[in-house]
Amino acid sequence: MRKFFVRFLWTVLVLVVLFAAVAFTAIAKGWIGYMPPVEDLQNPIDRFATQVYSADGKIMGTWNYNKENRICVDFSQLSPSLVQALIATEDVRFYDHSGIDFYALGRAVVKRGILGQVNAGGGSTITQQLAKQLYSGTAHSVTERMLQKPIEWVIAVQLERNYTKDEIIALYLNYFDFLHNAVGIKTAANTYFGKEPRNLTVTESAMLIGLCKNPSYYNPVRNPERCRERRNVVLMQMMKAGFLTQAQYDQYSAEPLKLNFHVADHKDGIATYFREFLRLYMTMEKPRRADYPSWNMVKFYQDSVNWATDPLCGWCHKNTKKDGTPYNVYADGLKVFTTIDSRMQEYAEKAVRDHVVKFLQPAFDRENRGKKTAPFSGKLTSSQVNQILMRSVRQSERYRVMKADGASEADIRKAFRTPTEMTVFTYHGEIDTTMTPLDSIRYYKSFLRTGFMSMSPVDGAVKAYVGGMDFIHFKYDMCMEGRRQVGSTIKPFLYSLAMENGFSPCDMAPNVQQTYIVAGQRWTPRNASRRRYGQMVTLKWGLAQSNNWISAYLMSKLNPQAFVDLLHEYGVNNPDIHPSMALCLGPCDISVAEMVSAYTAFVNHGIRCAPLFVTKIEDNEGNVIARFQPRMNEVISAESANKMLYMLKGVVDGGTAGRLRFRYNMKGEIGGKTGTTNNNSDAWFIGVTPELVSGVWVGGDDRDIHFDSMRMGQGATMALPIWAYYMRSVFADTDLGYSESAVFDLPKDYNPCGAVADSVEVDGIDEIYE
Fold this sequence. Notes:
There is one protein chain. By secondary structure, this protein is of the alpha+beta class. Among the domains are: about 1-30; about 70-265, Biosynthetic peptidoglycan transglycosylase-like (Penicillin binding protein transpeptidase fold, Orthogonal Bundle); about 450-505 and about 555-615 and about 625-760, DD-peptidase/beta-lactamase superfamily (Beta-lactamase). Strands 2-1-3-15-16 form a five-stranded mixed β-sheet, covered by helices on one side. A five-stranded antiparallel β-sheet has the order 7-6-20-19-18, sandwiched between helices. The chain has a two-stranded antiparallel ribbon with strand order 4-5. About 45% of the residues lie in helices and about 10% in strands. This is Transglycosylase domain-containing protein. Keywords: Carboxypeptidase, Cell membrane, Cell shape, Cell wall biogenesis/degradation, Glycosyltransferase, Hydrolase, Membrane, Multifunctional enzyme, Peptidoglycan synthesis, Protease, Transferase.
């Protein structure tokens, strides 16, 4: 009987072993359950966020799927205490097994399974936990979980074959979701402590590893005391494992959490408008006419030009990975190195806030106080304002949703006039209030908008980019996407055409109002000033004073179609610009980015630089997979460019931009041009220095939203100060290398008008209106 019992036990053992061997072979072959392909095991984490870097090496933000802002870090970038905390807490025999710790497994079966000791510890190794995170879904029952275990064992062994122990630890920490959008150890270290993983202290490492047990339960933000207790458990485990002494444990366990908490969000940080523009620009698909509504053919044209001429536009679809698939900025872990300088970007954003938030917006609110048509011009009737608001209602998301649900126009109008609780934006933070949706549309339209860009005239590198005041609440980008009438800032292009056709800055023109007959139509331009009326004045004086009569005179001597062609050479991608006499006063719509790029030709000897946004792109292994070079085209001759610089300097030294000297105390060589459109709807200033070209637009969300007074609404008041604040900050930061004493690259003592002609041009006035 005894022999029979022994044979029976051996038979059962052999059958169990055989069954296990067959089962594990079947799992490994993929016959039972899910066994990931070898390629997946060799690259188990297929989602790494793309990092966007500034030119001075700062991470500006990431692009990712579903807030999985995971950034890969190598084992060498981990704090030693972080690795020690993980091993001590999760798998103290990690370096002694090959994926499965049979000793720990047996202990868990006996103590937890048989004796019911809940705190006896688990049998899963770090490698098994990684296998579970990567390839196992959430189990809904004990049975389902038991079936998952053998599969995880096999995957763990395969992972051990493909990776070193250090690499497995890095994979584990790179993959884990630490809560609060902190996916992966790099983002977690930054979110909770504002640090890199290699700089984490012992207590900080212990806290993060403590979250691996259950990040929601031990949430350090909502449950700080519970999190602290869990951290101390990790510290105790580190002491038991020999990584800490008793004295160190006593010291560390007594410390508070000391969080430096900040949730990582793609809307946070600097250059939010730029990062969003760049994301859309790089992921753009080849433009197809059918994808654009009939009213937006200008956008189709502009996208088509960019796709054909700029390698960065649609880069993800123009280039493929080794496997032949397009690049994915949300998952491929790319590094995009931009031309933006984080310091200059901060100066630009501060300049915009200081002028618009502290000065312009309060002044605009005061002007609108008590005005029935506010924030719209007082020149409009209530009926006209209502028409504009109803157009905005039909463009709103609320309207589209209600319309899709079958609501009638009467129901929609009633809903938009029904008071509703809502949270609205202010410059001092969001506030809860009650207003009708229609009033909320009117409220948001009361905020002034702005666009700003600064770039190098030598290579086109964009140093600062501001698309608006607040990306979360005003997402429309007024730097690259928005286009508004440019007014007098178009005049330097007209004058450059004149220089190309034999004119000189010292040529004389009659400063009188004239009527021109064009295609049988009479056109009589107006001018804001009658200074020196009836006299013969130089073209330099005409540009400095932004005199419309001189511009009209020049246009009458030139070919309007040639002017349109030249605008396109300057990089203005608007096919709807029609040749006409009135074009000399800037009625066409152009973006801030196009204007700044065009003005680089004056500083760069007639060669215009297209905006350069990115210098290179690296893959997730650090290999450079793309480099981008400046894109240039010759627009005017070097001699014409010299003449234009001479005249643009006159705008600052004795013209409409003179307040740069007498009010903002700007020194050095500066050229520029102010611009103000009809009714003060758009205010512009483009300024050039030997090393930077920068442009500003300020206006309302709608052309009928503006200052009614010329004193407040002109470009010299609304836009120019932003440029001045920005440049003063740039010059003050000596680390940037920009000098106020830099000079334009002109021939020595360059003066095409001569000393006598130049001396009679200075008016010495305190204020000039366009």
